[in-house]
Amino acid sequence: MRASAALATEVAEAARVMSRLSLVTAFGHVSARLGDDILVTPPVDLTYVGAGEVVLVPLDANELPAGAPPETWLHLAVYRSRPDVLAVARAQPESSFVAGAVATELAPLHGQASWLGRRVPVHPGTRLLRSAALAASAADSLGDSEALVLRGNGGVTTGVTPGIAVARMWLLDVACRVHVQARQAGEPRPLADEDVDAWRAAAPALLDRLWAHLLRTTTEGRQA
Fold first, then answer.
1. Most buried among 92, 101, 125, 127, using CB within 10 Å?
2. Cβ atoms of residues 42 and 191 within 8 Å
3. CATH architecture of 3-214
């Protein structure tokens, strides 16, 4: 299998898992960097998206090709500003709407939240990111974090593979719920910086394990 076909298969698989985790409804997409291009899922129900539907988009595109979702601009803006990012997930977990309405950033309140960044920023803009300018503003808000809450508009996560980006979207949903529940219970106590650093140092292997778990639990029984 050619590298581009194998990566398209990974992108589609990660998108289907994200849908089965109920992190998206009719909206959302997954992408991956492929040299000077990206591969991105089309604007369809991700539950059934296949590798053959994944769209190739040049990283330096000034216009989006047919079949690419309008928010491909967000993916392009993240890749252009972050050479370390190899995959992006975009979803709308309900918890992100609540957290984005009450916070300007999320500090890690539990260890695994550290795998989203030392802080998860909340992008203040609430419009759909359907232009290069709006997308660039969101990428600026992301900064060097691995996740971003989009106020009133869900979230975006990054990774070294499509699966890791989706695993981080699952973690973002958890982190948003924990943040809101902690605020309701009292004054949240973020992890100390040295503890965040320790959790982040352990992240690569543990994120791989988390993705393998999410993949297994959402695909068992579906290949009969």
1. 92
2. no
3. 3-Layer(aba) Sandwich (3.40)
Other CB atoms within 10 Å distance of the CB of residue 26: 11
pTM metric for this prediction: 0.95
Q: Could you write out the three-class secondary structure of the chain?
A: CCHHHHHHHHHHHHHHHHHHCCCCCCCCEEEEEECCEEEECCCCCHHHCCHHHCEEEECCCCCCCCCCCCCHHHHHHHHHHCCCCCEEEEECCHHHHHHHHHCCEECCCCHHHHHHCCCEEEECCCCCCCCHHHHHHHHHHHCCCCEEEECCCEEEEEECCHHHHHHHHHHHHHHHHHHHHHHHHCCCCCCCHHHHHHHHHCHHHHHHHHHHHHHHHHHCCCCC
Residue extents of the structural domains in the chain: 3-214
Tens of pLDDT, residues 131-160: 999 999 999 999 999 999 999 999 999 999
Q: Could you give the CA distance from residue 29 to residue 3 in angstroms, rounded to a whole number? A: 20
